[in-house]
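Example record

The entry below shows one chain as it appears in the dataset: sequence first, then structure tokens.
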Amino acid sequence: MNTIMKDLIKLMDPKYIEVTGLFVPRGGISIYPYANYGRKGTKYEQLAMQRFATHE
């Protein structure tokens, strides 16, 4: 997810972005990796930290 997110940041230059992977269970294990980014020096940087801390 981090690689995908970094590629999207380079391509789009967003203020804020979230990337979530929803992967079909294989062997009975489901995973939902998550990454986010908020541009440094903006209100979105704090939003990213808050969202990451409370992500379910």
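Notes for this example: The chain has two helices and four strands. Strands lie at 16-20, 23-26, 29-31, 34-38.
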